[in-house]
Design goal:
By secondary structure, this protein is an alpha/beta fold. It has ten helices and nine strands.
Length: 235
Amino acid sequence: MKFSDLHLRVPINDMNQTRRMIAKSSELGYSQIGVPLPSGIKQDVVDQLRQASEEFSVDFVTRLDLAPKSVNELLGSLRRFRRRFEVVSVLCGSKPLARQAAKDHRVDMLSFPTESRKRFFDWAEAELASKSSATLEIEMSQIMCLEGFLRVNFLSCLRREVARAKSFGVPVVISSGATEVLLLRKPQDCASLTFLFDMDAPLALEALSRNPYAIVERNRVKQSPGYVVPGVRII
């Protein structure tokens, strides 16, 4: 089974630390990593990251994290940047943003503010996401870094969100969200921690393997030269 970490937050301005994090990910058993990049990233930086990943036999995936303030800002960003990145995630800080992101086929993953008492993956968002290609992303570093009431509240939210995702068949993606080597864990260790929010082992392993790989494969097909629309390719 191949494992993927679609949110490895490497310091792209520090290539030495970046290489250490990529090397550690490979050592822990990940075959694919997604690195969040600025929308205006230069191609030579992307090439350096890709080269470093290839050195450690890891598939490099470009990722864009959007944190819009309004629906119009989200739509504008998707129009401008969607085709430049292999994975697009949206931080949903309000109900209208969550609704729009959940139903928009250009959005790959939905994420939510960690320390907010009010998160917006309700039944309506789950139903909308089930009809699009959106997945629910859970970052394990958030669990490790939070303490006390904030961690309790976060786990309680995750239990509800995972239950809603399961009810509507919305795929879940588990990523590290790691900003340093010490926050990285083996895929099996991450899967074992999901019992904290009532996610069973088979679904946890899918969230670390099949689900993230499916996102990347789908979008790489769309970015291929012969792609026209879903189901239509130029031969």
